[in-house]
Sequence to fold (377 residues):
Amino acid sequence: MLNRAVCFMLVLIGGIFISCTMKEDTPMGESSLFGKLPDGREVVQYTLRNNSGSVVKIINYGAVVTSLVVPDRDGKFQDVVLGYNSLRDYENCTTYFGCIAGRYGNRIGKGKFTLDGKEVQLTINDGENHLHGGKVGFNKVLWDAQFVKDSAGPSLALTYVSPDGEEGYPGKVTLVVTYSLTDKNEFRITYKGTTDKTTILNPTHHSYFNLSGIFTNTILNHELMINADAITPVDRGLIPTGKMLDVSNTPMDFRSFTAVGKRINEPFEQIRFGKGYDHNWVLNGYNGKIQKAAELYEPQSGRLMTVYTDQPGLQFYSGNFLNGNDKGKGVAYQWRTGLCLEAQCFPDSPNKPDFPSVTLKPGEVYHQTTIYQFTIR
Ligand code: BGC
Fold:
């Protein structure tokens, strides 16, 4: 009798728990409570699944991709992006795991530039420079999210309205980022942005990939190809000098597949400045249309990730600032256990008239499409 009563209570409590944490189940995806911000606002985790069995999970805090599960050559599904289990970790995170970085992904020298004849001063948050949108960038705000019908596949649209003056940026900017998972295992990101005053906009996606699916492995065995003949070399503060550097005969040459670790410790000045790879590659044949930018292959699992983008640049960051302090998904992320391939305009472009422009004016629409496609080899 007692046992029955206990069972009944447990079922009841379980039911209440499930109905509190399950937010919504639609044919397009599921959602559940991920956590609450200190002010009580709820952060929700959304799940997109395709017909090939791949799954991507996204939270509306920072538009963060919390996991991306894709098959290896034996059909084994594993998560290939670094991340955390709890909202608190994302709130405290300085690594930008999985987020949309913005308004300006990457660095602006001294956080300063001139726009329409006026000097703009942004928040300084990286030495003497501005990085990834400032102290409270797009990675630290709550976005509105909803499942949307998209011909690409199950999709989630996230919208953030950035007020005029946020982190020093002029104009109220509305950015819609749509994440889609196609049946061809493409994880597609489209961006659409507008402003009410002349401003700059250059968002990017900041997932750290480890295609082995084992986060205690480094990414040094990953073989990388980047379709670029040049990089924008940087100074010690990682601000571009404004010149172009031909990659020929340097450790920056990834025009054919090369293991990331092969030349990463060479005494090449750019490598020393970046403490490894942390540079912008100037993509060949930029014309504003979607093109293949890079391929990343992990030999043990056979996973191959191909990056397509309509952007002029690709920041390849080899996780040089990971140091074991960030723990998530049951491991402490050690040095170079994840790498980012961030499609964007060139760093510090507001101060470099020869770089493609990132200026956005009222009435114009900012667009970006970047695709990470997963296959096996
Ligand atoms: C930058 C790194 C920076 C990292 C922060 C990357 O996009 O290139 O320099 O440390 O983001 O997580």
Observations:
- Residues 95-96, 238, 278, 315, 317, 321, 340, 342 surround beta-D-glucopyranose (CB under 6 Å).
- The helical segments are 2-21, 87-92, 269-274.
- The domain at 25-376 is CATH 2.70.98.10 (Beta-galactosidase; Chain A, domain 5).
- Confidence is low (pLDDT under 50) at residues 5-22.
